[in-house]
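ugh ok fine here u go
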Amino acid sequence: MKTKFKEKLSSILVTGALILGLSACDRPETKAAKFIEQAEAHLEAGRLEKAQLDAKNSLQIQPQNVEAIFLLAKIAERQQNWQEMNALLNRAGELAPERIDIKIKQAQFALLRGQMDEAQKIAESILAMEANHPEALALRSATKLRQGNMAGAEEDGLAAWKSEPGNASAATVLATLYGSQKQFEKALKYLDEGLQKDATNQGLIFLKLQVLVTSGQHDEAEQQYREQLALQPENQALGQSYVRYLIARNKKDVAIDWLEQRIDNHPDNQGYQIDLVQFLYRQGSPEVALERLDKMIQESPKTYELLFTKAQFLATSPQEAMAVLQQIVEAGKDNPDALRARVQIALHLVRGGQEAEAEQQLNYVIEREPTNAEALMVLGGLKLKRNETDAAIADLRSSLEQAPDSIRTLLLLAEAHGVNGQPELRKETLIKALQLNPSEEQIRLGLAHQLISANMLEPAAQLLRQTLSRNATNVSVWVLYIDTLVKQKKWAEAEEALQALDEHAPDRALVDFTRARMYRAMGNYSAAAKHYLAVLDVHKNHVNALTEYVQVSIADKRYAQAEKLLQQRLKQVPADIVSQGLLGGLWLAKGDYAGAESQFKSMIKTNPKSLPPYIDLASVYKVQGKTKQALATFDQALAQFPDQPRLLISKAQLLESTQDYDGAIALYRQILSTDAKNTLAVNNLAALIADHATDKASLEEALKLAESLQSSSNPFFIDTYAWLYYRLNQPEKTISLLEDLMSRGELNTPVFHYHLGAAYLANGQKEMAKSELEKALPKDVSPYKGIEDAKRLLDEAS
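structure:
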């Protein structure tokens, strides 16, 4: 009986154990963990769709599973689905605010988007939890480096290295810092030690190659390429970088041999074949490249990347290129490749002036994929071109949510903010673009142009210096760099840069032209004229050199020399309209009004569809006080160019000078009826109303109209907006706006002091008013609108 009981008990225990074991396997947390384990393995192997499916299965079981959410964020990162990644990271961070690894990823993403303050804030929150966390220190170092705080970046980078010697992030930031300072040995030391710890870290490998190339260590760079390619034969990005390096070193035959060898060793890898045909095409063998590409397309007609490459080769023949892209559209229906092809077709249509057709293609793409970053960018650019700035900004911001590191989109957005009268937002956008540190030279040039346009001269100069440190042979960069130094009045540095340009420029005339512009900026007109003439000796039809030569001759009152040159040119080519216009302008400048009038009338008679001669002829009449003839000239021009804004504004300004304010107002309203964002028309209309209207309703209408001027980079526009508040008996707002304007170091303009002084007086601040009104009436002041009122107010304040 006892034995039977033991056997029965044993049986019960075994059965219980089996049941418990089975129930453990069936527990939700066990199932969820299993899915996570599988998802991590798939992600490691690059099987993103399977990884995503397993991670989502885990979430089905445990909707608040932080590991699954974080894993999905990493998958979204690999897919470059930035909006999804951001949402998932935020969700994971909310569920597990103590998780440092999640915070690190959030900070890295903020850094990627150029959000330096956010990245630094997250890094600080990690360091508050763990003072010597190497990744957080490296992140804070990276933000300081991008903000130009070199000492702070070095301090944090070294602290990260001390906390974890060999840390890849610390090695990256220190190597970048020392590389920018041309301390190449130091940079390579940290990279080598980082690679000892993580030999396959692609970021460190590419950065080491960059440092070797930049420092001129070409033998070592080539050896490094070969060693890495031997270890990673399937790494196509590394192979492409090696080919570009060989081309830059003028080793084209070696590049072709290497690519041919890769194709033989990897016959199924279309990437290497595309690399070869692209190389052949760029090196001047387009027929050979297209023949080879067509053969590849015949063998693999469903490989759309081959068709995209062919369309790229045919870019100069838009109809043929679009026909190739249409093949992808028809074969792919609405798959990602077909949508990508539609966007490229839209780009060709835009270049061909078929904007409505382009917009149809883009809207088709966006209807099916609302987050298509490239379609949104192109559509935003189209709307910006049409001056629909608010709509353009909305599309460009949506594009950046998907592709936050797109420099092209950031440049378009900066331009849109500039057009929209938002200088601070423009500056903020340009800083983000700058912090992304673009590598492509054309993009860097575009960014530099925008920075210069926004008067951010030192950041532009720094960017151009960095660009030249990578490639000192790009003459376009040298010319823009010299222009930036000239704008900063850094004459010695500009001269040094001119000598460097002389070493690299293929044409001596380019050096002479750049030097002439520097002398002109310095006020040394005779030296400038000498170099402009040197350009014209080589390039007789260099329009800019000819125009600027005449301008400096007028500034220097050397009329005879310029007139002789222009007459000689017209003797050789009587129909040279550039020389005709310059000669008329020269006669106007020296007071030969009859000669100038005759010249511009002759030009209008010969070519009535050319706008400049009408404006020049009107100027001849205005200088002589012949208002009636000037107005008749504008009317004659408007018959040829109805609603032309430049003509309407010029005519309105002339009417203002004759005190025909109603006529001027009517013309400004006419401009704004077709172009509501014409800021000059907005300003002039608002200023007219501010100066001459007496009823509150008109002044309030002008204030509403002028709201867009408050964020303008033009100080006169801001002054107009401020003055309207004074006229509406709100002097405190005028004071706030004008004090801010003066604090920026704007022009010492008497009218600004008059308006600020009037506002102080209306606000009961007599001493402040007196000080400003005295500045509004210096001894050498030229008459301006309101000068008599300024004198009256000064008497009142004294």
